[in-house]
Specification:
The chain has 296 residues and is α/β, with parallel strands linked by helices. The chain folds into 3 domains: 84 residues, Orthogonal Bundle (Arc Repressor Mutant, subunit A), CATH 1.10.10; 97 residues, D-Maltodextrin-Binding Protein, domain 2 (3-Layer(aba) Sandwich), CATH 3.40.190; 105 residues, Periplasmic binding protein-like II (D-Maltodextrin-Binding Protein, domain 2, 3-Layer(aba) Sandwich). It contains 10 helices and 12 strands. The strands form 3 sheets. Strands 3, 4, 5, 6, 7, 10, 11 and 12 form an 8-stranded mixed beta sheet that branches. It is rod-shaped and about 105 Å long. The protein starts with a helix and ends in an 8-residue tail after the last helix.
Length: 296
């Protein structure tokens, strides 16, 4: 039994005429009649009562029609769904994010995407360090990551959205707290608090690299994997830290001051990262969103 047999049967049943059914199928009547005979032979029963000018379904034919119509209805839905999936209008998009890098970008990007593609399930995972997100992209566990850039892996494509600048955070009673700008070299003997080392935290890498460029290695006495905990360590007088400027606005506390650094050229980018060759059509649609649509 082939699909052409079923389509022929459905046309004849609905038109109640071999002539009209053949015209509907853009074919001549004899081949259509042959299809129906082949179908009846395979089923071992008569589907139609044939009269001179019309045909009518037998009782068995009516039951068969009900099943065929249901089957074609499901087939039509399957075809439509497959086309939507191919166009990225349904399916799933796995999105990873870092807490700080995605503070502004994640909500606006998710909102813009959901408004455009409401039937795509967004599986949002995080927050995770940028290094961990990079590993998940390579392992095929994520489709896209909102993270700090750059990522030094040729397998990963990236697109920057916003720049993250850095400032010095120190206790309000610190000896350098009254200076408008603090030279990095002046911090050589200071205790530091920072994000964990060797765990994929780009923010820690920036701090370490900046200090080395100023001629010293920071003496980190306490680590914390969240900005809130880091600010608390600074507030308690445990040390100073080099952190994103946006924390001055987001995590403001009376006992912590933020100072411009000298030189003031430290920055990272926030942006998107994805694996080259990822075939997910929903990812392609995400990447077609204009920057302004994400509110960046």
């Amino acid at each position: 039994m082939e699909l052409r047999h079923l389509r022929g049967f459905l046309a004849v049943a609905q038109e109640q005429s071999f002539t009209r059914a053949a015209e509907r199928l853009h074919m001549t009547q004899p081949p259509l009649s042959q299809r129906i005979r082949e179908l009846e032979a395979e089923l071992g029963l008569r589907l139609f009562e044939r009269c001179t000018r019309s045909v009518h379904l037998t009782r068995a034919g009516q039951v068969f029609l009900d099943g065929v119509q249901a089957m074609f209805s499901q087939l039509d839905k399957a075809v439509a769904a497959s086309r939507q999936a191919d166009q990225g209008e349904i399916g799933e998009l796995r999105v990873g994010y870092t807490g700080r890098a995605s503070h502004h970008l994640l909500p606006s990007l998710v909102l813009a995407f959901h408004q455009r593609y409401p039937d795509v399930l967004l599986d949002i995972q995080g927050p995770h360090p940028t290094g961990a997100l990079s590993e998940q992209l390579i392992a095929g566990q994520l489709d896209v990551a909102l993270c700090f850039l750059p990522l030094h892996d040729d397998r990963i494509a990236t697109r920057g959205f916003m720049r993250c600048e850095f400032v010095l955070a120190l206790p309000v009673n610190h000896r350098l707290a009254r200076q408008a700008q603090v030279p990095l070299a002046a911090l050589a003997r200071e205790p530091f608090v920072g994000y964990p080392a060797n765990q994929g935290f780009h923010l820690r890498e920036v701090m370490d690299a900046a200090c080395r460029a100023a001629g010293f290695t920071p003496r980190v006495v306490r680590e914390a994997d969240t900005s809130q905990a880091l600010i608390c360590h600074i507030l308690a007088g445990m040390g100073v830290s080099i952190i994103p400027r946006e924390l001055e606005r987001i995590e403001h506390l009376d006992g912590v001051v933020f100072k411009a650094l000298e030189p003031d050229t430290l920055f990272l980018e926030h942006g998107l990262a994805w694996l080259h060759g990822n075939p997910n059509p929903a990812l392609r649609n995400l990447l077609t969103l204009e920057l302004g649509e994400a509110g960046a």
